[in-house]
Structures are given as structure tokens and as C-alpha cells.
Design goal:
This protein has 252 residues and is mainly alpha-helical. Helices cover 55% and strands 5% of the residues.
Amino acid sequence: MASGGWLNDDPWIALASILESAKRADYSHVSKLRQWILDKDSDPTLVSACLGLTADAGLNTDLEFLAELMIEGPNYLRIEASLAAQWSGVLWLMPFMLEAWRALGRRADRAAIEANIANLLDPIEGEPEFYGSGLSQIEYTEAVDSRLAELKNILGSDEVSISGGAPVDMNQQIRLMRKALVLKGNDEWIDWGNFLIWRRKFEVYSGVDCSSFYEKKGVFQPRAAAAVLDRHLVSPMHFEAGKRYFFGSLVA
């Protein structure tokens, strides 16, 4: 898009321009998305798109904005910002997710944030510990805080991006995605319960077009997905575990 497209009065055109800049590893314009996130008259779909790009390509100051939303924002933005924090996966954002969880009164709202927390902290295999736990508020808070402290001690930093209770390892994730698409007999597929999360992360990190994963009506196409993943496995990109990437470039 033309240079300066982020100044366009049409927020969708501005968003598209910021996205194209981010694809070229220029993340300096992501902060401009805040104006539409905070505008109460913005289309909810626009707000979600802006929060998603903030999570995926935002610098530390942009992630701090997500933290502010989780502490001080209206309830709907607390929930949306928590989902964005999940997409970023950065460990230091998780206490703010927990703060948003504490601030919400509706059980359904809390469940939404619990799902985000569980996707980051619970291992891929095994029973979930941080969703539907039945713990009291105090017990749940202590359990999350304890796990965060454990991870920070193990990883040596809270700047690490995590998923499934461990630093994001995109190459390992791609292998898990491909394994989930292996026929187990009688034309049945292995369950791909985590595939939606994996697919989004893979597309964001690599920039590989995953639109063929689905038909126009949204029906998942496992064979088409397997073909895309196989092409990537033949010529894998370099991803350092625990780091954030956007279309193949490190988000520093």
C-alpha cells in the first residue's frame, strides 16, 4: 500500500496499511491502532482486528497498552485484551489477565479469561488445571501465581512467549500439527482440539497462507492443511523458542 496509508480516514484502510508495514518488520505504526480500540463507536470486528495485530506485532509499549486495558478498561475490553494477551503469549502479561479475571463478576466472562490462561499454562496433553478447576478465587489466584513464578524461575525471564505451559517452539508445534493430521485408520482423523490455536500461531509466525485449510463455508480441510505443512517441513524457517515472530521476522 502507499506510504502513509495508516493516516487514512478509513480505519480499515489504515489497519491494512499498518499490517503491510508489519509484514515488512516495521512495527512502529502498531500503536496507532489504539485510537480505534478505544473508540466506543468502532465496529467490534475492527476492535478485535486491531487488538489481534497489537498482540501479534506490537512492541513492548503496545503490550503495555494491553495490560492497561486489562486493569482499567471496560469489561468488554478487559475480555478482548485478555484474548490478545493469549495470542502474544508473553509471560509478564499473565498477572494482568488474572487481574482482569478478578475484576469481572459474570461467570461467563471469567470463564473466557480462564480459557485464555489455560491455553497458555496447561500442557497440551493431560487434564486442564486452570480451566473449570472449581477452585475459589483465592485458590485459583494462588495456583496461577505459583505456576507463573515457577515458569519465570525455570525460564529465567518473564519476557518469554509461552503456549501450552512451555516456551513457544514453532518448529515443534508444526510437527504436532502435522501429527494431528495423520489418519488413525478407517478414514478417521486424530483429534485436533488445539488445531485452531496452532493454525493461527503458525500463520502469524511464518506468514504462510493457511486459507486453504478451510472451504468457503468454513469446513476444515485436513488434507489441504497437511500439504501446506509438508511444504514447510521440507524447507523450515528458523524460529528461536520463546521469541515472538511476525511473518518470519523477529518482533523485538
